[in-house]
């Protein structure tokens, strides 16, 4: 998942800790990306920063990140992960069990050429997880275990998104019901395993449209 944001993460990291003006040459040397690529990223990034954050640009001094007094790198990075169009597109593909180009452009409000570039990047990344992307509609295809693993990585990487991802049933009720079943079978599971089962259940609902019996996964 980090491959989606590799360039952004390096750029944000250096700007945050530099805490002063930084030339494009310096940023290029530190991140390993060209000045033209970094400039495009800076323009796009500045237009989507949270309130009280700003990227200042100067022909003389370069660029610098202006942040609120108590602003943290974690806060900024979580915001970018949520706003990143790649993750928005991937989320649509996952949660809708396949989407059309019209679906994506209407939801994310970007041009078709931009979406195609995003989909190419998504396709290249997910292939490394043993998952392919079908077209018309765009949908994750491949071994079910690989797809589940990829989606779990997505949810875990997005940190704090579990309640937003699991939307077809109540997580607390699911946990209570599962704990009762485990008690009957005189066994236990740690919280992380229970959360993964909740993710699996939601994935199955996305794929099948119904709640699936999970006893076979215990």
TrEMBL record:
Record-annotated Mga helix-turn-helix domain positions: 71-154
Pfam families referenced in this protein's UniProt entry, alphabetically: Mga (PF05043)
Q: Which residues form the signal peptide?
A: none
Q: Does the keyword Transcription regulation belong to this entry?
A: yes
Alphabetical UniProt keywords: Transcription, Transcription regulation
Protein name per the record: Mga helix-turn-helix domain-containing protein
Q: Which organism is it from?
A: Cytobacillus horneckiae
């Amino acid at each position: 998942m980090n491959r989606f944001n590799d360039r952004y993460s390096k750029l944000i990291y250096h700007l945050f800790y530099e805490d002063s003006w930084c030339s494009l040459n310096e940023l290029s040397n530190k991140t390993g990306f060209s000045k033209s690529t970094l400039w495009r990223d800076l323009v796009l990034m500045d237009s989507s920063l949270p309130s009280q954050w700003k990227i200042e640009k100067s022909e003389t001094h370069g660029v610098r990140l202006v942040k609120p007094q108590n602003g943290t790198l974690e806060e900024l990075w979580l915001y970018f992960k949520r706003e990143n169009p790649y993750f928005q597109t991937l989320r649509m593909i996952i949660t809708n069990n396949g989407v059309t180009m019209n679906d994506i452009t209407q939801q994310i409000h970007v041009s078709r050429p931009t979406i195609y570039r995003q989909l190419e990047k998504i396709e290249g990344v997910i292939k490394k997880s043993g998952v392919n992307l079908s077209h018309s509609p765009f949908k994750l295809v491949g071994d079910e275990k690989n797809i589940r693993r990829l989606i779990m990585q997505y949810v875990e990487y997005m940190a704090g998104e579990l309640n937003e991802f699991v939307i077809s049933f109540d997580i607390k009720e699911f946990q209570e019901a599962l704990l009762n079943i485990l008690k009957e079978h005189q066994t236990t599971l740690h919280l992380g395993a229970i959360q993964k089962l909740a993710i699996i259940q939601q994935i199955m609902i996305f794929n099948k449209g119904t709640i699936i019996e999970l006893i076979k996964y215990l």
